[in-house]
Amino acid sequence: MELLDSRAATVGGTPVTRLLPKRAHRTVGPWCFADHFGPVDLGPAPTRDGAMAVGPHPHIGLQTVTWLFAGEVLHTDSVGSEQLIRPGQLNLMSAGRGISHAEESPDDAAGEMHGLQLWVAQPDATRWSEPEFQHLAELPVVELGEATATVLVGELAEARSSARADWPMIGTDVVVRGEAEVPLDPTFEHAVLVMSGSPAVDGQHVPVGTTAYLAPGRPSVTLGGPARVVILGGAPFESTIAMSWNFVARTTEEIDSAYADWAAAGARFGEVRSELARIPAPAH
What we know:
7-stranded antiparallel sheet, 49% strand, 2 domains, single chain
């Protein structure tokens, strides 16, 4: 087990803790990005300090996975989706050859906002496909000793999510009350992201903001609580990825092409129905 530190960032006015990627682990299975946002108290509307306001921006070659512990987020995208997500629900957007979207707190948002924004690198078999959006209002839940696990993507203890998976992978939210043994696919590598508490991961305490990386070969991991963690994993990815801004690719030429197409406001990334300003590409 390796313990990986995080770094602080701000995205669309919301403070985040960036857990992935890390220099030593650019991917964990196909998972290539993890931002833990909040918990932040938005205050009563219309104050909304810390509210999310991420204007239209592009993606290629990845899937975004949005998971909330508290609050609400409104997603709009260039394939015509407009979807409010709440805790216990999953938004999964597959960019393929190109998509754009916006994410924001609803106008009447108040109280706490807390969640995860995750990216999954798409394999060669699907990374040039047409973009898609999927919303799951319900997900499978399993009891594992003194813990409750919600399966976001993949399969855990014979419970399988219907979320699209382009690569062998797992994503699960585990609320740990006492002690629990979570079964793992030994062919996968895994990362344990701590959302709250300071869980014991195979007997070692891991605080919020630190990620425990687990190499392939483990049939299970033992967790001690009370705590909440998200476990991400998958088969080691097929190739080294190139990642710049919001793009996941294989070569600098693919990245340069995506930057140019977004700057030109052409048909590749479409249009998003949002009152938020379109985000220009940074210099690269």
